[in-house]
Specification:
The protein is mainly α. The protein is built from eight helices and no strands. The chain has a single domain, classed as CDP-alcohol phosphotransferase transmembrane (TM) domain (Four Helix Bundle (Hemerythrin (Met), subunit A), Up-down Bundle), CATH 1.20.120. The radius of gyration is 18 Å and the shape is globular. The chain starts with 5 loop residues before the first helix and ends with a helix.
């Protein structure tokens, strides 16, 4: 079967509006007020609460989708986008709150690189199962969310905690590079 692109896939997806997908869309709707609150020093607590709720929906949507057998192609597309935005958008604003720009850049590079690698793999149906999230990827997300929450709530050493998150981010990025390289070699030598 020929790959028709993700927009065609979304329109054909019969399970487009499952409960997990609604949670993902709800998470995405939180981004505008979250960023606004982060930009206003007197609204950091509100930003923190919104972020905690959004992070919980990330955990919930996947658990519910798997547990209730509500996985869908729409969710496979929207959830990673929402996850990346949930990390990257606040990080940009947190630079103004003292987070080192180069830590943010390091996290950005990893997130964009792995996302591009996954997009390439997802375009090849025979490799798609290999694009699944790894344990290290989940651990990385947990440390990123925890670090962002702590920084929002005024943790005294924002760069120390963000450095821990960056360490796990780079580690999982290297893990994905190894996976992608093995897949690339497999495809290149089987052609």
């Amino acid at each position: 079967m020929e790959n028709q692109g993700f927009l065609t896939t979304i329109t054909k997806d019969k399970k487009k509006w499952t409960f997990p997908n609604l949670l993902t869309v709800t998470r995405m709707m939180v981004f505008a007020p979250l960023i606004l609150y982060l930009m206003l020093d007197d609204k950091m607590a509100q930003a923190g609460y919104l972020y905690v709720i959004a992070a919980i929906t990330d955990w919930l949507d996947g658990k519910i989708a798997r547990g209730w057998k509500q996985q869908s192609e729409t969710g496979e597309l929207l959830d990673p986008i929402a996850d990346k935005l949930l990390v990257l958008l606040p990080l940009i604003v947190l630079i103004q709150h003292g987070v080192w720009w180069w830590l943010v850049a390091l996290i950005f590079i990893r997130e964009i690189g792995v996302t591009l690698g996954r997009m390439y793999i997802n375009g090849k149906p025979e490799l798609k199962p290999a694009a699944k999230v790894t344990y290290l990827g989940k651990l990385k997300a947990t440390f990123q969310y925890a670090a962002i929450i702590l920084v929002i709530f005024g943790f005294s050493y924002p760069n120390a905690i963000m450095s821990v998150a960056a360490f796990f981010t780079v580690w999982s990025g290297i893990d994905y590079l190894i996976i992608f390289w093995r897949l690339f070699k497999k495809v290149a030598f089987s052609s």
